[in-house]
Amino acid sequence: MNFTTGADALAALNASSETKNSREFTSLKSGSKFIVRVIDKAAVQMAYSYGIFKQVNSFVAKEPSTKTPNGFPTDNLTPWDKAYKYHKDKSKDFNDEHGQEASKYRAKQRFAMAFFDLDKGDYIIVDLSKKQAQSIATVISKNESKLGKKAFELEKVGSGTSTSVMLSPLDLEDLTEKQRTNFESAPTEFDQSVFNGIWYEQNEAQMIELLKQAGFDVSLIGYNDASSTQNKVADDDPLPF
Q1: In angstroms, rounded to a whole number, what is the distance separating the alpha carbons of residues 198 and 91?
Q2: C-alpha distances out from residue 2 to 5, 9, 60, 132, 197, Å
Q3: Residues paired with residue 123 on neighbouring β-strands, in sequence order
Q4: Minimal CA–CA distance to 73: which of 38, 37, 102?
Q5: pLDDT digits over 1-57, tens only?
Q6: Are 56 and 183 in contact, with CB atoms under 8 Å apart?
Q7: Domain spanning 21-221: which CATH class is it, in words?
């Protein structure tokens, strides 16, 4: 149906236009510690993320490309996939100049993992690399039969590029009264909608602009080097009356 009338139309008029989940990733810096409850070992979501450390913040494609099981883009390539392939096709060795450039634009698996924070009494979601997520998942699997009886300490240790994320089981007796209360009142099942809106999505025009920000000549992959105007929001354009 293309038309909404009557009470439904009135409800749409009065509804808030804000639909994005306000939940954001919790910063997990070296030295950070959180006391959490694991609601479900499957409270995890994977996405292919682009970005360049300290240059372009991580984001995902609003319309992602088709990829092989190993993450190699094959169809419906994004601008960043095209930049990756441009250098990859010219590379003879991963360590050569084109190989290093290709790695900057390659989509990498990132994992959002949700935990119930026993100090806040609410979910937190952390952004992890595949290696970090595997380490956490291993601990959860080993303690799967005790998830309703154990809390965990989630922490990041180390400095610089030598950091790791650890999850360590805790007895309930080790918790504060507030933490024990939140443990008992935590959800018994995980709602996957907790992840809604957590990833920072970018459309094609925005991804092109981010390539330029990274110093890539987008004309090499068939795009106009002029500033894009396609990413302007049109929702609030004046109506023709």
Answers
A1: 35
A2: 10, 12, 30, 46, 26
A3: 116
A4: 102
A5: 445 555 555 555 555 444 445 689 999 988 999 999 999 999 999 999 999 988 999
A6: no
A7: alpha beta
Task: Please write the tens of the pLDDT for every residue from 111-128.
Answer: 999 999 999 999 999 999
Closest CA to 78 of 216, 234, 236: 216
How far apart are alpha carbons 10 and 8 in whole angstroms? 5
The answer to whether 186 and 39 have CB atoms below 8 angstroms apart is: yes
**Rounded (5°) CA angle 178-179-185:** 90
Model pTM greater than 0.70? Answer: yes
CA distances, 218 to each of 31, 66, 79, 131, 232 (Å): 39, 21, 8, 32, 20
Nearest to 139 by CA among 166, 117, 113: 166
